[in-house]
Give the backbone structure.
Amino acid sequence: MVGQFRLCEVEMDKETAEAILIANLKGSKRKRSPLLTIAEAIRLLLKHGEYKSSKRLAEVFGVSRQIVESFDKMNDQPEEIRKLIAEGKILIDANTKLASIPDINKRIKIAKAVAGLTAFETRDIIDYWKKHPELSVEECKETVLKSKTLTKEIHLIIVPLENSQFDEFQKIAKNKGMKIDEAAILAIREWISKQRTG
């Protein structure tokens, strides 16, 4: 365990660790124990001769190897990040993405910036930061979150027009100084408005 932050208040033996994993992993999507307790139980069992590997532990408890390894990575996080995990501000997926950052100080800084965000937002911010290391973490966070708010659903309508109709429509759009798609959107808006009032 890195740092002094320890969540388990009782000494954990093999049987306790197994009970924690049965209650929290085997067939359960809801975690009843704190994430760091589950992580410490996994670490203890990985050190136990019977299990030996994350693959074997995953098989026994009916989860993927990735889940076992994701929890185990929590044990190697610095104290500041373990505290955020304990507070529920960093969850499993976000922790796994953070663990991919080799520089501990940068990892802590990014963890603090993404604390409380969704796993998707965290992943996007870290990926963006890796592509743009010249930017600060806050700049990356702002850029990614701002881009999310600009997303809107659009629909595409394909309208069959004869050449003469298309040419006439294109000529009208050009005379009004508009692109053809702008003219089509304007025509649809005017038609909708006319239908509402008429």
